[in-house]
């Protein structure tokens, strides 16, 4: 796990990659997710209490090798939660198969401002196939 680093992905890159079965999108916004919609198929792990839920997250993304974190702007919460996961994996002895940890540039707000599809379902987690977008 040594040397793992966080890279950035743009909205247009994510738009073309997000249907890949090995990618998980992790939304770490807090209450805003309820009001502002979300990227379809994204998981929700609020930044508040994120550390306590890391093992649950790792379990939920079994089989995925790429995790893309975002918050509203991806300036504070998104990168810091991504960093917490990197640290956790570096300290953990188990190989969970996560190879890439990324942060979505400009976050959800940038995604929405660029006119990319926003899902407003109330499912937790979002069930992509049932979403209009
Ligand atoms: Zn949804």
From TrEMBL:
It catalyses: [glutaredoxin]-dithiol + arsenate + glutathione + H(+) = glutathionyl-S-S-[glutaredoxin] + arsenite + H2O. Residues 19-120 form the Rhodanese domain. One of its GO terms (cellular component) is nucleus. Transmembrane segments: none annotated. One of its GO terms (molecular function) is arsenate reductase (glutaredoxin) activity. The keyword Membrane does not apply. It is an enzyme of class 1 (oxidoreductase). Its EC number is 1.20.4.1. Keywords: Oxidoreductase. This is arsenate reductase (glutathione/glutaredoxin). It comes from Cicer arietinum. The chain holds residues 42 to 174 of 174 of the full protein.
């Amino acid at each position: 796990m040594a040397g793992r680093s966080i890279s950035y992905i743009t909205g247009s890159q994510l738009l073309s990659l997000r249907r890949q079965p090995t990618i998980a999108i992790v939304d770490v916004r807090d209450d805003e997710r309820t009001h502002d919609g979300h990227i379809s198929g994204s998981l929700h792990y609020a930044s508040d209490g994120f550390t306590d839920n890391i093992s649950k997250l790792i379990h939920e993304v079994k089989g995925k090798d790429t995790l893309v974190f975002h918050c509203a702007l991806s300036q504070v919460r998104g990168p810091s939660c991504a960093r917490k996961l990197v640290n956790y994996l570096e300290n953990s002895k188990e190989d969970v198969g996560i190879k890439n940890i990324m942060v979505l540039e400009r976050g959800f707000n940038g995604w929405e401002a660029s006119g990319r599809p926003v899902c407003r379902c109330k499912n937790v987690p979002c069930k992509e196939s049932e979403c209009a977008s």
